[in-house]
Write a structure and sequence with these properties.
By secondary structure, the chain is mainly alpha-helical. Helix content is 67%, strand content 0%. The chain has 10 helices and no strands.
Length: 214
């Protein structure tokens, strides 16, 4: 046998012997350390992890929501709670409605100083709204106990801004009568006949009654 063939035979015998050795021990040859099986048993992270839920900040209440809540508490007679909502509403929007609402709440709280300020702001916001003039004159007369000149000035300003609205004309005539200003009251009742001829008989009867007191 040649040396080359002998060398091949030795190699083959070594391989067979190695396989027999591992077979007897029941072991498999050790895999290289870079084998894919080295991370077996370790859970791989998900490819697309689910992000945590985003908590949206609470929305601030709107002007409408605030004024509605304020009116609810006002109707229940809970004026302090009503005021807290209306004060927040007026920061968002300024108009005669919110100021008139504040006026009513302050009146309920007997805070006449702030009530007066709120009514003045309501008139600045809308000087053509007749009900605000009527209420303002009534407030000054009944709550503040203002002088005749002060209340009379309110009526006159209201008549000017509302172009002699019939409600202000008759309201001022009543106020003049209340203060025994009969001749002046007759003057405004005569204006009332011109503004509202349908009620001429009523106004005329009042005029005749006042003439009897002069």
């Amino acid at each position: 046998m040649s040396y080359k063939n002998y060398a091949y035979l030795v190699v083959i015998l070594l391989i067979i012997g190695s396989l027999s050795f591992f077979a007897r021990r029941g072991e498999a040859p050790t895999l290289p350390t870079d084998s894919l099986g080295q991370n077996e048993g370790v859970e791989a992270p998900p490819e697309n992890p689910i992000p945590p839920p985003v908590t949206k900040p609470a929305l601030a209440p709107t002007y409408k929501e605030l004024i509605t809540k304020g009116h609810e508490f006002y109707l229940k007679g809970q004026y302090t709670k009503a005021l807290s909502y209306l004060q927040k509403a007026v920061l968002l929007e300024q108009n005669d409605r919110i100021y008139r609402s504040l006026y009513s709440v302050y009146l309920g709280l007997k805070d006449y100083q702030n009530a007066e300020m709120a009514m003045k702001k309501a008139l600045i916001a809308d000087s053509k709204l007749v009900s605000n003039w009527v209420e303002y004159a009534s407030f000054e007369n009944n709550y503040v106990k203002a002088s005749f000149d002060v209340v009379s000035k309110i009526y006159l300003e209201g008549l000017k801004d509302t172009k002699n609205n019939i409600d202000l004309v008759t309201g001022y005539a009543s106020y003049l009568t209340e203060n025994k200003k009969y001749a002046e009251a007759i003057t405004y009742l005569e204006k009332a006949i011109i503004k509202d001829p349908a009620r001429k008989d009523i106004f005329q009867a009042e005029i005749e009654s006042l003439r009897g007191k002069i």
